[in-house]
Amino acid sequence: MESIFQHFRKEEQPFIEKVNSWVKEVEDTYAPKLTEFLDPRQRFITESIVRNSDLVIASEGGFPDAERKRVLIYPDYYTPSGDDFQISLYQVQYPQKFVSMKHSQLLGSLLSLGIDRSRFGDIRITEEAVQFAVTAEVSEYIHVNFTQVGKVKVSVQPVLNADDVIDVQEEWTEEMHIISSLRLDTVVASLAKCSRAKASSLIKGEKVKVNWAIIDQQAFEVEEQDILSVRGFGRYKIIGIEGRTRKDKIRVVIGALV
């Protein structure tokens, strides 16, 4: 267990223990295990641990190129199908002519029902439609009880036709960054093309998120598959850490959402 922990952050240890318990459950029962929705960093950790077993892993988020996905851990004899992931998609019906819907408003209203964030997948918003993914286990509860976003009355209807699913093609550009360390202030300075002092100010001002959580520690170290958002500058993904240069700088491939 100690050897596994050393590859990840200290604060990720509870999640690592959870993944280890999933692996043991599948090994003991020889039956598939379905997780809740996991973000890219959580899936990276899960894949890293499952890879050291004789089990297989697959993931699905309901939407094409989903960011949040449910993961199925299963023995090699098993052949998973789409139904195994138990994901329901819903479309929000609201007075579009008079109201614009924001991601934060919709998520906040869903969470106010007392359901954990891990039960929800991606939220997709376009000018024509608003849709979200949810675990099938709580879908009926959502269908009945989700009736309001802020002061706006809403209703939800299941998305049953694959052609009606919102397909938002996100475009990312990749760039190699040569940096002195993986500290958050160093990475933000490189992304924002600003000084370390300016980067530290952004972090202290709670304008930087890593994996959807505000991080206010400049010395926090980023890892592969982390998602960073810097208010006023954009959203980024740590794609790969590719070793060091002759001058002992670190090569990091980072994607930027266009």
Automatic annotation (TrEMBL):
Domain RNA-binding S4 residue range list: 182-239
CDD domains: S4
Keywords annotated in UniProt: RNA-binding
GO molecular function annotations of the record: RNA binding
Gene3D superfamilies given in the database record: 3.30.1370.160, 3.30.70.330, RNA-binding S4 domain
Pfam families in UniProt: S4 (PF01479), YlmH_1st (PF21278), YlmH_RBD (PF17774)
PANTHER family per the UniProt record, alphabetical: MITOCHONDRIAL TRANSCRIPTION RESCUE FACTOR 1
Protein name per its UniProtKB record: RNA-binding protein YlmH, contains S4-like domain
Organism of origin: Sporosarcina newyorkensis
Taxonomic classification: Bacteria, Bacillati, Bacillota, Bacilli, Bacillales
